[in-house]
Amino acid sequence: MNKTKLFLVDDQVLFVDMLSDIIRHRTDDLEVIGSASSGEDAIQIVPELQPDIVLLDVRMPGLDGFGVLDHLKKWNREVIVIMLTTFQDVEKAKDCMNGGASGFLLKNMSVNDLIDKIRTISRGGVVISSQIAEKIFSAEKEEKRKSEQSQLNLNEEETKILEQLSKREMEVYKLLIQGFSNSEIADKLFIARQTVKNHIYSIYSKIGYHDRFKIISGKR
């Protein structure tokens, strides 16, 4: 059996030694072929050993994980890099994934889970720790909310009210405040006119307005 060759990069030597021993004794398809305790050493040794996967600590003195990732991807775009960290840093996770990392994992996961994630990534998967993924989702949702608030010129009170609208109702509302008729809204959204009327009635009920002109004039 051809083993997947791993290279570990972490300034915590004890962590590297423990993970190497665990992989050696618990797997028969993974093999640690080398390690480095600094980013500077990693970018020198990895091209020589040419591992299949590099497990890379995000935060290190000197050349940090993101810097190493950038160097390795310039050396070989196909090299698989998994970032490991103890910090739930959303922005760093985004930077690393955009920089070509195939995984962004927290070190507090169980060893068995980490091994499973390494195998998944070795088969072409991309994995982010669930805690980080949830934070990214929440941040993107809030960013979208603020963007919509800015585009519609809403104050905080109006934003809270419109958060009650469904996705389709929000689509109808956006066209409504632009002055489109029910027929035009139906054509743009590819839905029946009666469906548009139903959505508008629901919007009126939720925002407390029952005057189409007041809604339109207030948002122009």
Verbal overview:
The chain is of the alpha/beta class. It folds into two domains: about 5-135, Response regulator (Rossmann fold, 3-Layer(aba) Sandwich), CATH 3.40.50.2300; about 155-220, Winged helix-like DNA-binding domain superfamily/Winged helix DNA-binding domain (Arc Repressor Mutant, subunit A, Orthogonal Bundle), CATH 1.10.10. The chain has helices spanning about 15-25, 40-50, 65-75, 90-100, 110-120, 130-150, 155-160, 165-175, 180-190, 195-205, 210-220, and strands at about 5-10, 30-35, 55, 80-85, 105, 125-130. Helix 2 runs parallel beside helix 3, helix 8 crosses helix 10 and helix 9 (about 180-190) crosses helix 10.
Features of this protein?
elongated, six-stranded parallel beta sheet, Arc Repressor Mutant, subunit A, alpha/beta, Rossmann fold, 11 helices, single chain, 220 residues
Quick recap:
The chain has helices spanning 13-26, 39-49, 65-75, 90-98, 111-122, 130-152, 156-162, 167-176, 182-189, 193-207, 212-218; strands spanning 4-9, 30-36, 53-57, 80-85, 103-106, 127-128. With 220 residues, it is of the alpha/beta class.
